């Protein structure tokens, strides 16, 4: 496929996703600008990120630190002037905290106090070394299926983890993130997430982000208050490499 063909393909799928979002917002009596589209570019090359950037997207996400690191650098070379924000949305080992703070603007997958501590320390070091300017924006990832296998902390642990994050000067608590359980009813999951978000905002009014909804269930997430949908397949097509 030529770059022109790929560009046309991405433009078409982007228009479709944006149309779904507009309709979902309308159905939920929400304004379309209340929901941000985050392009999940895992397994796709930096050239696709560049094309999506040309098409107007500014927020991109990856789920593996190692894959992201190179892609972020490559994209910066392809489009040095582009406005961009990189989100980490995958499970993160504490020993990758240092590496992730070099490229991520937002880490959406913070699910333990130990990981929060590691990220705070790594961000402080990166700032001291001049490798990073700003504090790291983070979301608390919540597990909605009663297991911890796919990442996320149990709902009951959210308040304590949020307090921990808010108590650091290098992390900024922005809200919550979740993945709807496989095979479960997304409406139930996203309604639960909304309740967790509302409770969180009593103590942390600044934590307004609700990152919820993917290619298959974004309408349900928007109906339940999502402020950011994370879309991979519907934008970029079937994934090329295996990715956990
Ligand atoms: C891959 C991924 C997505 C995007 O999923 P699609 O079904 O391809 O839209 C969203 N969130 C997370 C955490 C992911 O890993």
Automatic annotation (TrEMBL):
- Highest taxon, organism lineage: Bacteria
Q: Pfam family example for this protein? A: Ala_racemase_N
List each copy of the Alanine racemase N-terminal domain by range: 30-239
Q: Which InterPro entries match?
A: Ala_racemase_N, PLP-binding_barrel, PyrdxlP_homeostasis
The cofactor(s) it depends on are: pyridoxal 5'-phosphate
Q: What keywords would UniProt list here?
A: Pyridoxal phosphate
Any one GO MF term held by the record is:
pyridoxal phosphate binding
Q: Which residues carry this modification: N6-(pyridoxal phosphate)lysine?
A: 42
Annotated PROSITE patterns: UPF0001 (PS01211)
Q: Which PANTHER family match?
A: PROLINE SYNTHETASE CO-TRANSCRIBED BACTERIAL HOMOLOG PROTEIN, PYRIDOXAL PHOSPHATE HOMEOSTASIS PROTEIN
* Functional description taken from the UniProt entry: Pyridoxal 5'-phosphate (PLP)-binding protein, which is involved in PLP homeostasis.
Q: Which family, according to UniProt? A: Belongs to the pyridoxal phosphate-binding protein YggS/PROSC family.
What is the name attached to this protein's record? Answer: Pyridoxal phosphate homeostasis protein
Q: Which organism is it from?
A: Saccharopolyspora rhizosphaerae
Lineage, broadest ranks: Bacteria, Bacillati, Actinomycetota, Actinomycetes, Pseudonocardiales
């Amino acid at each position: 496929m030529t770059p022109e063909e790929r560009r046309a393909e991405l433009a078409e799928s982007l228009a479709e996703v944006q149309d779904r979002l507009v309709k979902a917002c309308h159905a939920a009596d929400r304004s379309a600008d209340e929901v941000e589209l985050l392009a999940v570019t895992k397994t796709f090359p930096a050239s696709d990120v560049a094309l999506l950037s040309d098409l107007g997207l500014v927020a991109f996400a990856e789920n593996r630190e190692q894959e992201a690191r190179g892609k972020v650098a490559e994209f910066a070379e392809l489009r040095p002037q582009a406005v961009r924000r990189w989100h980490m949305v995958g499970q993160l080992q504490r020993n990758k905290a240092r590496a992730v703070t070099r490229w991520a603007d937002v880490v959406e997958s913070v699910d333990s106090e130990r990981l929060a501590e590691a990220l705070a320390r790594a961000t402080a070091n990166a700032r001291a070394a001049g490798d990073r300017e700003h504090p790291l924006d983070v979301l608390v990832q919540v597990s909605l299926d009663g297991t911890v296998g796919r990442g996320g902390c149990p709902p009951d642990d959210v308040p304590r983890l949020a307090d921990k994050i808010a108590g650091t000067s290098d992390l900024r608590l922005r809200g919550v993130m979740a993945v709807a359980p496989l095979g479960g009813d997304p409406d139930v999951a996203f309604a639960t997430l909304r309740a967790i978000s509302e409770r969180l905002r009593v103590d942390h009014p600044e934590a307004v982000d609700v990152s919820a909804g993917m290619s298959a269930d974004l309408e349900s997430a928007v109906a339940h208050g999502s402020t950011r949908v994370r879309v991979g397949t519907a934008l970029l097509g079937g994934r090329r490499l295996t990715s956990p």
